[in-house]
Amino acid sequence: MINKLKTQCFSSFPYIIKEIKMLEPHHIGKLFDYTQKSKYGEVKESYVGEKLCGEACYVLKHILNQYNYDVKVWYNTRRYGKEIDDHCFIVVNNKIIVDPTYRQFIKSNMIYSQDSIEYLYNKLDPFFIGTNEMLHEILSNKYIYNKSITKYWDREQDITYKFK
To answer: What residues make up the domain containing 64?
Structure first.
């Protein structure tokens, strides 16, 4: 099922980017890593989706609904002093996490080197599609210094009703 989901999601990548840009034209500069984009263009290998989880989930949810998956959108928040950090992601059939913007957290919690950049943009898929165990395996990589970022995938509030 995971491979089928990946095929369905990644084949829609250009459409997803186009739709995110239409939904949020003021933050499209955060869709792609600047350095990677200048080298490769607006492709999967440069995609990050920073601060665009809501828009990306909105588009992806509707694509997944067309394939008749049971799709839920989950939301969580964290407070850091006066700042509030929030995130939303998708869960398919109550077990498969689909996060179209997970790279933003890896990027901001990564030990920067040429190897870590290669890992982030060329070894990892542009969207995370997998189980909790698969996510934890990625986050345990030697390039990621903050292992506590798993909190971004806590299922605190079901907000699926907002995505109709």
So the answer is: 2-163
Rounded Cα distance, 120 and 104, in Å:
10
Query: What tokens appear for 69 in the block?
Result: 């998956």
Structural domain tally of the chain?
1
- What lies within 8 Å, CB to CB, of 154 at 6+ separation is 76
Question: Would you say how long the chain is, in residues?
Answer: 164
Q: Please give the average per-residue pLDDT across 113-141, as a whole number.
A: 95
Please check whether residue 59 is in contact with residue 16, taking contact to mean a CB–CB distance below 8 angstroms: yes
Cα gap 30→2, rounded to integer Å = 27
Output the six-digit token pair for 145.
Answer: 């210094």
Residue 8 tokens read as 């369905």
146 pLDDT above the threshold of 90: no
**Pairing of the two strands 96-99 and 128-130:** antiparallel
CB 93 within 8 A of CB 1: yes
Q: For residue 53, give every residue at least 6 positions away whose Cβ sits within 8 Å of its Cβ, in sequence order, or none.
A: 87, 88, 89, 99, 100, 101
